[in-house]
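Name: Corticotropin-releasing factor-binding protein
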Amino acid sequence: MSLDPPSPPPRRARSYKTRRVSRRLSLSSAHARLLPQTEMRVMARTFREQLFFLVLSACVLKGDSRHIENNEISKDEFFSFFDSELKRETPEEFMYRRPLRCLDMVAVEGRFSFAADSPQLRCAAFLVAEPDQLITVELERVHIDCSAGDFVTVFDGWVKKGEKFPSSQDHPLAAYERYVDYCDSPKRSVRSSQNVAMVFFRLHAAGSGFALTVRKHANPFPCNVISQATEGSYTMVIPQERRNCSFSIIYPVEIDVSEFSLGHDNGHPRSSTPGCAESGDFVQLLGGSGIDTSKLLPVTDLCASFSGPTRVKVGCDNAVVRMVSSGRFVSRVSFSYRLLQRPELQSIKLNNVEDFCFNN
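Structure predicted for Corticotropin-releasing factor-binding protein:
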């Protein structure tokens, strides 16, 4: 299949802040004999399967920059790649330096290098950190031919099939500012605004290559998170600032919202209705199959402060807790989530009023 020539990337991006999530999985006894199980940081299989839809479903990166299309990689090859990550991304002290693959996932700090032994035209590395971390990417030893169409571009967030996370509504930068291209920008260090970032690149000649260093930094007020975990609890706070924040869980889950506070007791009863936008301060539970929260459909809205459980099952590829703040209050939402089991997913197919997913 022919590829459209890459369009020139947008100009500059400012640097902001972000953070990370790690997973520990048990390995086979053979692997366990090599490395202590307590030191093994690995991604959950389910998360790796969900990331298959991120990387493979691509005509990956349509958007406002040079993009990658038609990644020629099979499902088995993709899972094989992540199986190798069980070995390659275990203890961080052993994985500080390693080569990048054309399609890669990086969940640890370190120095990563890529050297092309043949033309590599559709490559991307997805970077992820803990929820309360930001990611800094520093480009080094870049040997590419910009005039021949080579590029190395850092994106502040993730892109999949033209959809961006965070969405344009929820990110502090304009879309074109979220791309930093090595050929067009003097910047060699880029800090993300959330716990995910990505690097995509195209190299036409063997011998071309680059290195990048990934570092992570504490983020006191995380906003816009992609979770690697299948279960957990989280508190999202917006400190009197007009902005939107989302927590994206790329599995079908049950979400239990235990507290929603606007920083004052307004005496109103809890509100859980299809529409709360008029209030200016509310929490949405969203569901769908994409990563752009503005394109997901609402499961329910919460408008008024309350404490006490509100449980909703969202049997979707992506379940999101999104908080919208007018900036008048210190907004806070606390929730927990867990992976839905197979019998629960089967019951969702029966169109229970509360348990559903939007397959648009």
